[in-house]
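Shipment paperwork, digital attachment
Item: protein structure file
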Amino acid sequence: MTENGSAANGYAHEDVERNGGNSPPPYDGTLTKETEVEEKPQETEEFDPWTVTDLVDKTKPWAELTTSERVQRVLWGYIFRQLLLLGLLYMFICSLDFLSSAFRLLGGKAAGKVFSDSKIFNNPIAGLMIGVLATVLVQSSSTSTSIVVSMVGSNLLSVRIAIPIIMGANIGTSVTNTIVSIGQSGEKNQFRRAFGGATVHDMFNWLCVIFLLPLELASGYLFRLSDAIIKSFHIQTYEEGNVKLLKAITEPFTKFIIKVDTKVITKIALNQTDPDTSLIKTECKKDGINGTVPCKFLFMNVAGKWDDWVIGLVLLLIALFVLCTCLVLIVKILNSIFKGHIAVLLKRFVNADFPGKCGKYGTGYLAILLGALLTILVQSSSIFTSALTPLVGIGVITIERMYPLTLGSNIGTTFTAILASLTQEGDKLSDAMQISMCHLFFNISGIILWYPVPFMRKIPIYLAKQLGNTTAKYRWFAALYLLLAFFALPAFVFGLSVAGWQVLAGIGTPLLVIIIIIVIINILQKKKPEWLPGRLRNWEFLPLCCHSFKPLDRIITKVFRKCKCCSKCSSNDSIESSSEDSTDQHEMYRVKPDV
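Attachment content:
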């Protein structure tokens, strides 16, 4: 009690100095009613940023409105605002198409050149990473998958070798909604939820590959299952396989701006054309006219004067500007809409579960089905998940509900590939269908692995929340994550795999073992710290840069200090992080009274 008392008196003198000389009563190590009253709010005021925003109907009843207010509500609330939202959604979807075209112009030729060297695909790890990088470069899993289908049809690749590339394409396609989530970086908790809702797709795809790729290499179950299905059905070519649904609405505008010939990428991969051939489409077919006519679009005048990468860079800047502008306006309109009775009904409908244990269990599977159907309707998993990301950010949809919708979108996106494969002719048809079926059963296997068991489904959600929390604390982490997860890591692993199995195993195995050990220690530190030696119960014995982003944050803050917006965000984050650290230290060193 003497040590406790002296410690308490020491804290009391510090409190006197902070409170301007008003001395609090001496602390004798016993709990009083006043201390209980003071400590209770700290426990009850805890805020969970991942919970859905409590939407309350604050709109004024119709009966209490004046005539002018009723006219204003009808014109703005029921007509103009809804039309404006539809127009912004249209431009948002078109901006995603422009983004895809820009990346094709910037990296399409490089992707085609990589695919043209079919020897490197004999290494499945190299094939996996090429699938990731190529899909990120062309911003479309459909494009990269169609290239693989054409290479298989031309006997440049076998179906077995193509399967890891399809898995990589499944990972690369999730980069779009992660980019979209950055548009909500202005508000901390919105950014946290949006980034977490976007990266839950990434976590699911990476976890599926980590577990299912070794299983496929060991057993070949995807190849055997798809081969048995293809042989059991008599499949015929379907010329109208490329059905356009949403694209029929957006193509008139997007084709007016730019026309990119994705077939050139396929021809470069098949060594059927010069690698320096332009991807800009200059000759178009016209109904009623034999042959071709010059294409007409906005960038046509500079198509022959500027290089593809210059046009792609300009288009990328335009696409990002339109994307961010539409996203900000969409979020503002959604925030204004989701304040009345519509918001309350939508929140209850989207996040509600069916009654009973069986009903609650089956709600997630209904969400998977709904996600698949909506993705088939829009014919793009990127568009579907990117449209849901702002809703997760503003708190209308929980990340737990976003997860099954994302799983459904993974299944729905394979429907487009199956229809496209039906347009192949002759010997290409069976191979194209088999690859499409491998893609479908890969996603179904991932769902079986990571959804039915409650413990397993929590893992991708937990990882996504950790990324969201980190991004909320350090805003720049979102850009770092994009560079590492979709560029640096695939390129590094690809380089090791190209060097040979000996190099990949010699460097990759020790790194993998270290990562596994770190993960196990982190889990034990939170769950069973008494199982660890005293030194390993935290990472404080390591240099700060080894277990914290604070040193890197200081460097980045100094670099961007000249930018008022960035410095403001960084300073706010630093203040928040320092306050959290001071709270943790106060809890650590606070004297515990003897009871």
